Amino acid sequence: MAGAGSAALAACGGGSDSDSATGGTANAQTGVAKAATSASGTATPPAASVTDSSGVVWTLVGGRVTRNGTGISIGSPVALTLILYYNGTIYAQSSSGIWYKNGSPWTNLGTTDPRGTTKTAGSLFYGMNGHMAWGAGSVYNTMSAASQLAILQDLGVTNYRADVATPAMANILANALRGAFKNSGVSILPVLNPSSVGFTTSMSESAAYTLGYNLATSVTTNLKGLVQYIECGNELEVPVRTNGNGNLTSNYDPVQWLPYRGVIRGMVDGVRAIDPTIKVGVNVGIPLAYRALQMLWNGITPNGTANGVSGAATIRWDITCYHWYESSGDVVCGWINNQCFDVLQALKDSFGVPIFLTEWGWNGWSDNADQQAAYVTKALAEYKSVKDKYNLQSVMMYSVIDDNFGLLKGDGVTKTSAYTAFKNFVKANPV
Fold first, then answer.
1. Does 228 lie in the same domain as 183?
2. Can you spell out the DSSP letters for 67-89?
3. What is the pLDDT of residues 241-260, one digit of tens each?
4. Is residue 38 part of a domain?
5. What is the DSSP letter of 313?
6. Full-prediction pTM beyond 0.90?
7. Cystine design at 300: which of 175, 188, 295, 367 (Cβ 3.0–4.6 Å)?
8. Do residues 256 and 377 share a domain?
């Protein structure tokens, strides 16, 4: 976690950090296109048309495949009902359930879904943050993977987020996944931390890209075949925002934006270069910084104006990651200029891919034990109630062990009342 509740908003009271000069609401931005599909193909679009990474548009017209408007044959006179872009390849499915893979000629795959068998969204829903790969001086360093797993299983958690910055740290996660975590029902979500290996916003965009790419390839090499997801960066937009709530293009520094974008592009490309089956995520930590994600997705560069400059390289991810703490109020009612704004709806509409809240938690510096427990129950109840509406697939609390934010105190042994509240809610509300 990099600053829980940074740039936090007062709950239902309007943010003192708002850009009042604009007088606009959080979504008062032009040039923000709703995505039809992820470039990595993890989302089947609602319409029978997809665009691949080279810009080719594939469409179903009258049950046949067209490529940039020109009809092509799949080698079999069947009616097609679905087209899918997945892991860099176009697939089509017939009305009888037969899958075909693009090629010369197209390949009949039978009824085998090219996406394979993956865990359901519900199996990842209850998650937790920890620091499994931290070194000497950390309780995580002295606690075995089996002991950490036992805590997670007692809580009912099935998704464990851990920061990683080097191949050695990746090996710690890999050893856990080959050992205690294997077939345990608990997955690990690595989050790449470029700041630990020299990334700064004073770098050039190209240097930042190279750093991010090298970090991602070195870590992913050790985790290939062991993880389904990798999160690229942690709250990297925080130093780039120079004013406002983060919901406006003009809130971001034009110079620092370039290395910020570069390092994220590098990490995303690096993960996919090693294992294109791994789904990548990108997050922000400022409560209303969804605008930073929109700009990355749409290739918009801030230049001090309201809308910025379009035409930059776009970035596509498979899961939209977001952080939200109690100090920021309600994620479906973030306040800007005294107006309630639904952040989860903005994420769903802007990107069309699953949402992970990869950090959430109470106000660690002010809540007492009873308030912490009450917030855990309240937050989990809300997130579970809206998960299907927003395609919210995982909510990962910060954290399992921490004196201020943990369900366990820093000794890794002492349970808080929030620990019991979390455990009881999950047990009573399976997904």
1. yes
2. ETTEEE--SS---EEEEEEETTE
3. 999 999 999 999 999 999 99
4. no
5. P
6. no
7. 295
8. yes
